[in-house]
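Letters spell out the chain; backbone shape is given numerically. Take this protein:
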Amino acid sequence: MTKSNIIWGLIFGFLSSVTYFHFVSNDSVYQSEKLFKYVGFVDYSEDVISHEQLMKLIEENYQRIPKCNYGVAIVKTPETAANIGLSILSSKFGEEFVDAQKPFRVYLLNGKVWMLQGNVADNKGSVILIQKFDGTILSIKK
């Protein structure tokens, strides 16, 4: 074997491994480690939650909403909403159930309710609704 063949073999091996690990780390490993994906603010939309479901949740939980205004929401960020929702889902359904649905999607519905939705291909992931004003859990769906 010549020196040039060895050098070319090392270069080819190095480039192959760098390319492989780049795609593996950006694809499967990164996605499974990611806790949630903040989708952003959305106005009411039928594809997120039906109008009837949203109105029912508001009517059922209106009595529990405190009449005072703190001037600031308790659950301000998607990170806080995700931490609250994941803690509740983990305690109710178990860590394995929650891990299977990562990364979760976080929506802010009409500026009032955080919706944390599990990432399942057939759209049957868990959904938890958290009131932005005081952190009240409005709904949990497995």
